[in-house]
Amino acid sequence: WQVWTPVEHFGASSPGDRHVRIDAVSGEFALPPEVREEDGTMRAYGAVPEKGAQLRVPRYRTGGGSAGNVARGAISVLRSSVPYVAGVDNREAATGGV
Fold first, then answer.
1. Is pLDDT larger for residue 57 or for residue 63?
2. How far apart are alpha carbons 45 and 16 in whole angstroms?
3. Helix, strand or coil for residue 65?
4. 68 phi and psi, to 5 degrees?
């Protein structure tokens, strides 16, 4: 596994940073871009995983209200399929939903 850190944007990311953006509504992950600068050089805004790499994002938040307050291990099945996601589990209790 490679651990990747969620960020709001890639603006402060360096070429070796394992950063990912997460759309909390769709569940889609965005990996950093590489951009051609005005002088023609390429600038990487974060690392790019090797083909076939398995990524782990240790924490990210999404809503659901009090129905999302569940015990550790209570989530083991996706409610709906997500492309390229084989399985889920919650290793910690989910709390704080209102």
1. 57
2. 8
3. helix
4. -85, -5
